[in-house]
Amino acid sequence: MGNPLDGINVLDLSQGVAGAYCTKLLAGYGADVLKIEPPNTGESTRRLGPFVGDLPGVDQSLVHLYLNTGKRSITLDIQAVEGQEIFGRLAAGADLIVESFIPGTMTNIGLGYEQLSGENPGLVIT
User: Fold this and answer.
1) Per DSSP, what are the bridge partners of residue 30?
2) Can you give the pLDDT of all 126 residues of the chain as single tens digits?
3) Is 88 helix (H, G, I), strand (E, B) or coil?
4) Which of 2, 8, 9, 84 is the residue whose CA sits 20 to 30 A from 99?
């Protein structure tokens, strides 16, 4: 028997604990979650302690490791035109996008519901 969310594709653009925990739960129920992190800085929980061996580092945050278990991860600059194009292609095959930007940010960079739902009318963005 499969998991309840097998076959559900989620794009996780969230920063911080709340969105990451939401998508951790979705991954735990079988959703395919792709964590999309900004280049250079990565997701903000990478800088939260405690750290493995008490040595701060982008791959050492126990908070980040816990919240992103069961997810795939890429870096993508959605502020850049090329990154927006790539994200648009990813969104065309997604069921859900979880993001935590200031309201209107995604729309302002051409990645809001109005822009993305033309290719994928069943898309849910939260």
Assistant:
1) none
2) 799 999 999 999 999 999 999 999 999 999 999 999 999 999 999 999 999 999 888 889 999 999 999 999 999 999 999 999 999 999 999 999 999 999 999 999 999 999 999 999 999 999
3) helix
4) 2
Q: Structural domain boundaries of the chain?
A: 36-78
Tokens of 42: 């990565």
- pTM value is 0.95
Q: DSSP code of 13? A: -
What lies within 8 Å, CB to CB, of 80 at 6+ separation is none
* b/e map 83-102, b = 16+ CB within 10 Å: bbebbbebbeebbbbbbbee
Paired residues of 102 in beta bridges: none
Radius of gyration of the chain from its Cα atoms, rounded to whole angstroms: 15
Which residues is 77 bridged to in the sheet? Answer: none
* 3-class secondary structure, 34: strand
Tokens 């997810």 -> residue: 71
